[in-house]
Fold this sequence. Notes:
A: alpha+beta, four-stranded antiparallel beta sheet, B: alpha/beta, globular
Amino acid sequence: MKIGAALLMVAGAAAAAVAVRAADADQTIAGPGAGPLVLLIVVAVALSAAGAVTWRRRPDSAVGPLLLCGAATWCAAQLASPAASSPVLFTAGLAFGAAAPAAIASGIVPDRRGGAVLAVAGVGLLGVLSALVFDPRATGCTECPRNLLLVRGDADLYETLQRAGLWLGLAACVWLVGGAGIWLLRSGAAARSRHGTAILAAAMYLGAVAAQYAHGIPRGYVSADRVDRALWTLQGAALLVAAAWLASEPLRERRARARLARLVVDLETRPEPRGLRDVLARVLRDPGLRLVYPLPDGRCLDAGGRPVSPDAGHEVTQLRDRDLTLAELTHTRGLLDDPAVVSAIASATRLTLRNERLHAELQTRLDDLRAMQARIVAAGDAERRRLERDLHDGAQQRLATLAVSLEAARAGASGEHGATLAHACTEVRTTLGAMRDVAHGLIPAVLADEGLAPAVEAFAETADAEVWVPEPLPPDRLEPAVETTAYHVVCEAVRRAGQTEVTVRAVRQDGRLVLSIDTADPPAGDLVDLDDRVGALGGTLRVERSDGTSHIVAELPCA
Amino acid sequence: MLADDEALLVEGLARLLAEAGVDVVGKAATAPETLRCVALTRPDVAVIDIRMPPGHADDGLIAAQEIRRRHPDIGVLVLSHHLESRYAMRLLEETPERAGYLLKERVSDVAVLVDALQRIGEGECVVDPTIVARLMSARRALRPLEELTAREREVLALMAEGRSNQAICDAFFLSPKTVEGHVRQIFMKLGLRESPEQHRRVQAVLAFLRSPQN
Lengths: 559, 214
C-alpha cells in the first residue's frame, strides 16, 4: 500500500517534469532534445523499480523508500525552472531539487554520516533554506512563478547559503566517493560481486555531482550550461546502472538458489567422500572455503579426521540442524551474509554433513587408539630397558662383588669352611649366569646400545635355528619402539620356525622398514601377538607362501 | 690397574689379586679417570669394566681401545656381562695382541683371572670360553664344523679363545708339530687363509664362527 502511494508520487513528479520540459526545454537543467527526456524518464523508472523491489523484499530497511525518494527528487530537479507554470511545482523544485544525491547516497553507499551531511547540504542549504530567501523576481527572473516559501528576499544571504551548500555538498560527495573506493579495495571478492556494481555506479554518480557543485561554486549556484548538462547526463547514466543492478537483485538471488538446488542434486548423484568442501567451494565460488567439524571436546576436525586450528581473518558460519552444530564454514567476509542462504545450505547438506562428521570422528578415534597402543608398547619396552639396566648395574654387579668377596674369604679359610665357601662361590657364579640370561631375554644390550642390525647379527650367531642374513641390515638407528618390535618379530619368527633354515632381510623404503623372514615351513601357531605389536606402531604383518617358502613380511613405519 | 664404577668390587678384586701375587697399582671409577690412571701408573694390564660412567653403554670398551692405541705395551682385559661376540670382535679389531674379553662372572675365579692376565701380559689375547662355546654350538656353525674331527674342533675352540700353539700343546699334551698340522688342516677345511701371526688368527677364526658361509 505504501509502495503504491510512493510510486504514485514518483509518477506525479515525473509527469510534472515532463510537462515542464514540454513547456520550455531550454530552461531546464536537462536541456532540450529527445535524449535527455528519455534519460530522465528511464532513470526515474529504474530508480522507482529498484526502490519498489527493495522495499518489497526488505520492508524494514530504509533503502526502498530512499530510492523512491531519489526517483522523485531526480524528477523534481527539473521543476526549478522558469518554464514551470505552477508556483507549487516551482517551489517544490527549489526545495527538493538538490535532494537526490542525499537520497541516493544514503540508500546505496554504506556510509550514514556522509549521507546525512549530504542531506544537510542538499535539502537544507541548497534547498529549503535557500528557498526561504530566494525571490526570483528580485534576481531578474521575470518569467519565474512565485516562490511560495519566500520569507524575505535577500540576494546576498541566498548567495552565501548556496555557496555554503555547494562547498559542503562537494566535500560530502568527495568523502563518500573516497569511502566507496576504500570499501571496494578492502572488501573480499564475494562482497564485491554482490554490492560492488551498485556502489561503483553510485560513486560515479556522486563524483559527477561533486563535479557539478565544483563547477557551480565560482558562479554561486548550479546552472544549466553545457558542462552542467554533460554532468547531468553522466549522473543519469550512473544512476541507471545502479538502479538496474539493485532492481535485478531478486533475479540474482534466484540464480543463487538454483545453484544451491544444483548442489543438492550434485551431492545425491555423485556423492564424493570427503568432497563436500570442494562442492561447496565450487558452488559458493570461494576457493578458500574450509569445512570444519567441531567435536564436543573442543577439537575441530577436517573431513579426513585430522585436527585443524582455527583460521584468523576469515568469517565463520555455523551450519546447524536444530540445536546441534553440524559443521562450521570458514569463508571470506560477506559471503554468507544472507541467513536464508545459510539455512538453505544447511538443509541441503544435512545428511552429507552428518556422514562426513561421523567419518571424521571415527578416523580421529582410530588415530587416538593407534597412538594409545603405540604408547603402551613403548612403555612396555622402556620398562624392559630399565629393568635390564637395573639388573646389570644393580643385581649383577652386586653378585659379582659377592663372588669376589667369597673367593677372598675362601682363600683365607681352610678345610670345611673352605669347601663350603667354594661351593658358595660356584653357586653365585651360576646365579650370575642365569641372571645374565634373564637380562639378555629382557632386552639384549646390543639392541639397546647399537641398534637392530648388530642385534640381529648377534642373535643369528647363536640361534637354535640356522639364521642367515645375506645382505647387511640397514645400519641406521631407528626409533626404539621400531627397533625393539622388529627384533622381537625376528626372534619370534625364528623360534616358531623350528629347526629349519631362516633367512632374514630388511630394507628401508618410502619411510618404512620392510622386514622379510623366509622359512621353509610356515610358522607354528598364529602370529596374533606379533600382529598386535606391529599394528600398534601403525605397521602391517602378513604371511605369504610362494615357491615352497613361507614369507613373513612386516612393514613398520620409520621416519 | 682396576677400573670399575663399583667400588666394593674393585676392593675385593684388589685383595684377591694381591693374595695371588698380582700388584694392583691403580684404581679408577670412570672412563676418563681410567685413561689418566693408566698414563700415570703404566701397569702391565688394565682390567676395565665395559659399562662405566659417563656414558654407561660401552665406554669401558672404547677406553680400552684408546689405551691400546696410545700405549701399545700396556694390555687390556675387558670385563662384561654381555656374551655377544660383537664386543669381543670390536676389542680385537685393531690390535688383537694384549687384549682380552672375559665375562664378569669369571672374575671371582682367581685362577682364570690370573691366567688371563699373564697371557695378556705376554702379548697374547684372551676370549672368554663361554662366548666361543656359544658360537661353536650355534646351528649354523654345525655343518661346516662337521668336516672337522673332534680333536680339530677342540683345537679350533682353543684358537678362538686366543691361545697360542704352545698353550694348545700343553692343554692336549701334543707336540708342536702335531698342533701345527691340526691348525693347517683346520684352516684348509674351513677355507680360511692362514695368517702369519698367531694373534691375527683369532680374528679370522672368530669372524668365521660368527658368520660361517656354506
